[in-house]
Amino acid sequence: MFVERIQSVALIHPEWGNMDFQTDFQLQVEHALDLRGHSRVLFVDASATCPAPFSLLPLIPAKDASFTTHSMTPQAVLHTYYELEADLPPPAWLLAIRGERFELGETISSSAEQYLQAALIWVENWLKTGK
């Protein structure tokens, strides 16, 4: 939902520059290559445990146990980029948006919708200002 909504807003803001949106549900080793040429990266995920409405954490490359699985952490993706490119990855953050119901087929709750809106407002400002 986040990507769909921010993509539609980005269409009317060409001044934000080139953006690449990925909607994969699991991070894979190949995603390290998607970081090439980007000045900054925002990973976005729903969370049942983050404080409402959302949390933002800076990420640093880290090799972890997810490296050998079919689903990697953002930190492991950044580490893979470092190993492949022999260079630091672009600055990256994890935006965790508070969610409430995660069962298959559930619709978004009214409070989760409010949290999503708050995160979208924050990201619009982040894209405008770079901060």
Quick synopsis:
This protein is α+β, with helices and mostly antiparallel strands and 131 residues long. It has four helices and three strands.
Fold and architecture overview:
This protein has four helices and three strands. Helix 1 (2-10) packs across helix 4 (110-129). It is 34% helix and 15% strand. The two termini are 23 Å apart. It has one domain. The mean pLDDT is 92. It is globular. The protein has helices at residues 2-10, 31-34, 74-85, 110-129; strands spanning 41-47, 54-59, 92-98.
Give the overall shape: globular
Main beta-sheet strand count, sense and barrel state:
3 strands, mixed
Number of helices: 4
Low-confidence stretches: none
Strand order of the largest sheet: 1-3-2
Total number of distinct structural domains: 1
- The percent of residues in helical segments reads 25-40%
Overall mean confidence score, pLDDT? 92
Descriptive tags:
alpha+beta; single chain; three-stranded mixed β-sheet; 131 residues; globular; 4 helices
Please render the helix and strand layout as text.
Elements: H1 2-10, H2 31-34, E1 41-47, E2 54-59, H3 74-85, E3 92-98, H4 110-129
Parallel strand pairs: 1-3
Antiparallel strand pairs: 2-3
Helix pairs in contact: 1-4
